[in-house]
Design goal:
The complex is a heterodimer of chains A (277) and B (123). Chain A has a 4-stranded mixed sheet. A two-stranded antiparallel ribbon of chain A has the order 2-3. Chain A starts with a helix and ends with a strand. Chain A is built from 10 helices and 10 strands. The longest helix of chain A has 51 residues, at 2-52. Helices cover 38% and strands 13% of the residues of chain A. Chain B has 123 residues and is mainly α. Chain B has helices at residues 4-18, 20-24, 48-68, 86-93, 101-107, 114-117, and strands spanning 75-77, 80-82. Chain B has a two-stranded antiparallel ribbon. Chain B is elongated and about 80 Å long. Chains A and B meet through loops of A and helix 3 of B.
């Protein structure tokens, strides 16, 4: 009996040691090769980032990437323009108007400069900027953090570079809202059906429990039209929409002629919405 | 058998109880639904038997093509171009959701979530 117990303890001890030591050694080996792999892929990522950064430094003209230039000065000159574009967008897309602020759904809206560009604080802001608001909307980032966060691929970047929502797939987890650094997304806490006035009968509304946001008027752009907000601006050219990857497009011309800024570019999301300050 | 006086009536009551749906609805089986077909259109996007069986799959295919792959190409029926759209194609001919969609869906007790978001034509 004693003999057996002694042998059992020996075998158990040795195998425990072998198990621990063995896994440690194997773990080291795997980690070592893993590090090699990781550094390799990291190198590739850096290269890829270099290629894609610089916004059109080396764009692929065969692939569309839609973008927008917003001329803040035009919105300061004509303060009614802001209301017009917001109303145009929200009526075309059946965006509900909830009575309470906490339920608010926004696709495009007007805000103060310091809210849109919190990373550019200025105590001595000029009067025009201080008095007037500017429009903000989904930035349709080239590297969208919301798309990475979405567990169901309900939000995705389509072939035209538009960050889209497939409301059929949205489970309402709101990871995308947490991921979006620009607050471009709204959640339907209540059923929006009865809060949509004068519904546009060629575009759906949303249901309770889904996240919604600007879709760069994909349904209009796909049909060869301009986004509703751009159309609402008329001839003022306060909003210019176009393909950033096409060097001959109007938007690229505007970008070449004006100094533009993006919202929080240091995050590396590569926004497709540019502002002329 | 012991207690056959209790067991047999008990069994009869049990069988009657679990067959409530059968005898309670006896004779009340709804007549086969007759959806109202559009008067001015003769051909649908697919032959009748196929569209009857496959319309939900077709709608999903349209949705994925339009939304996810961005393929908004139109198709032609009798020389007229149509879009891949529930609200802009289907409901343009079938102008009444109540008299068309709902007749079968209510009968078969299926509750598609289309109309949570998509807007039915005004009736």
């Amino acid at each position: 009996m004693d003999e057996k117990r002694r042998n059992f303890l020996k075998v158990a001890g040795i195998s425990t040691l072998a198990g621990l030591g063995g896994t440690a050694v194997v773990g080291r080996l795997v980690a070592g090769s893993g590090i090699a792999h990781a550094s390799g892929s990291a190198g590739h990522e850096v290269e890829a980032a270099k290629k894609s950064s610089g916004h059109g430094a080396a764009p692929d003209p065969s692939v569309n990437r839609y973008g927008m230039v917003i001329d803040i000065k035009k919105f300061q000159q004509d303060p009614s323009l802001g209301e017009k574009i917001v109303a145009a967008c929200h009526s075309v897309h059946n965006v509900p108007q909830f009575p309470e602020k906490k339920d608010e759904i926004k696709w495009i809206w007007m805000t103060q400069f310091e809210n849109a560009f919190p990373e550019k604080p200025n105590v001595y802001l000029d009067e025009a900027t201080e008095e007037h608001q500017l429009p903000i909307l989904c930035n349709h980032c080239d590297s969208p953090p919301c798309v990475r966060a979405c567990p169901t691929k309900a939000t995705f970047r389509n072939k035209d570079g538009i960050v889209m929502m497939d409301y059929h797939r949205c489970i309402g987890c709101r990871f995308c809202m947490a991921a979006c650094p620009y607050g471009s997304r709204s959640f339907n806490w209540r059923d929006p059906a009865e809060f949509v006035k004068d519904a546009n009968h060629i575009y759906p509304r949303r249901m309770r429990g889904v996240v919604e946001k600007c879709n760069f008027c994909d349904e209009r752009v796909g049909a060869g039209k301009l986004p509703a907000c751009v159309e609402a601006c008329g001839e003022s050219k306060a909003l210019v929409f176009g393909n950033l990857n096409d060097p001959n497009s109007e938007i690229r011309k505007v970008l070449k002629e004006n100094h533009t800024i993006q919202r929080n570019p240091s995050l590396g999301t590569l926004p497709s919405v540019f502002y002329i300050v | 058998m012991y207690d056959s006086g209790k067991i047999i009536p008990g069994l009869i009551i049990f069988v009657l109880f679990i067959t409530i749906p059968i005898w309670y609805n006896r004779g009340a089986a709804g007549s086969v639904p007759k959806p109202v077909l559009p008067k001015d259109a003769k051909t649908c996007v697919l032959p009748a038997a196929e569209i009857r069986a496959e319309h939900m799959k077709l709608l999903n295919t349209w949705r994925d093509e339009v939304l996810r792959t961005g393929d908004r190409g139109t198709f032609e029926i009798e020389g007229k171009p149509y879009q891949k759209s529930l609200m802009m194609t289907c409901m343009k001919c079938h102008t009444s959701k109540k008299q068309f969609c709902d007749t079968c869906h209510v009968y078969a007790s299926v509750k598609p979530y289309c109309w949570d978001c998509h807007i039915a034509p005004v009736e």
